[in-house]
Amino acid sequence: MPPTTPTLRTARLRLRPFTATDADALFALHSSAEVMRYWDSPVWTERARARRFLTVCRTIEDEGSGVRLALDRNSDGAFVGWCALTRWNPEYRSASLGYCLDATAWGHGYATEAAHAVLRWAFDTLDLNRVQAETDTRNLASARVLEKVGFVREGTLREECVMNGEVSDTWVFGLLRRDRQPSTAA
Fold first, then answer.
1. Residue 68's beta-bridge partner residues?
2. Cα–Cα distance measured from residue 65 to residue 90, given in angstroms and rounded to the nearest whole number
3. How far apart are CA 78 and CA 71, in angstroms?
4. C-beta neighbour count of 111 within 10 angstroms
5. Other CB atoms closer than 10 Å to residue 110's CB: what's the count?
6. Do 115 and 93 contact (CB within 8 A), yes or no?
7. Residue 152, strand partner residues
8. What is the pLDDT of residue 137?
9. Residue 92, pLDDT above cutoff 60
10. Are the beta carbons of 66 and 60 closer than 8 angstroms?
11. Structural contact between residues 171 and 134, judged by C-beta atoms closer than 8 angstroms
């Protein structure tokens, strides 16, 4: 059975399904060169990209291949980014974790908190056995987030991406059900 996009709550965040009203915040997030520095896709230059992103959110849920959740800060309701579980494969009981946060939200533990919530849902509700994540090897902050939530670096995809003429490597991380350390964060 395909996953239904949940609403998850943590001490400081609400993770919720995207709505059409998120288009402007998504465009602002993905049009930031600072935020997109280590991504394998270019900075957004047209607002239509945000609408396409929202369409893909609905499509992956409808197909049963994953969910993307908007992250709102509880204290003021501000959109701070998103977290996703994609490439869900019920036969293999596996999926991939991803996240993107606004630069103003960096360094506050929001990515770690959101990842813990999504992983708790992935393992407890979807009964996954493995979750994978990837990050550019230069993105040490993202690698630290993955390690904090229990991922193990499993390998390097050498020269996997070429973006704007710049070649980069990618680290592959994995988290197995048996190695999972349940979060104490609510």
1. 84
2. 9
3. 8
4. 25
5. 22
6. no
7. 174
8. 95
9. yes
10. yes
11. yes
Give per-residue pLDDT as tens, 110-145: 999 999 999 999 999 999 999 999 999 999 999 999
- Using 50, 70 and 90 to split pLDDT, how confident is the model at 164? confident
Strand extents, DSSP E, the chain: 8-9, 13-17, 67-73, 79-89, 94-101, 130-136, 152-163, 166-176
Task: Check whether 186 has a pLDDT greater than 50.
Answer: no
CA pair distance 12, 136, nearest whole angstrom: 27
24, 26, 28, 31: CA torsion to nearest 10: -130
| Residue count of the chain | 186
Which residue in this structure is represented by tokens 């040490």?
Answer: 140
Separation in Å, CA 146 to CA 65, 77, 93: 22, 25, 20
Strands (E), 106-151: 130-136
Mark 47-71 as b/e (b = at least 16 C-beta within 10 Å).
eebbeebbeebeebbeeebbbbbbb
Cα 65 to Cα 107: distance, rounded to the nearest angstrom: 30
Residue position matching structure tokens 């197995």:
176
Supply the pLDDT for residue 11: 96
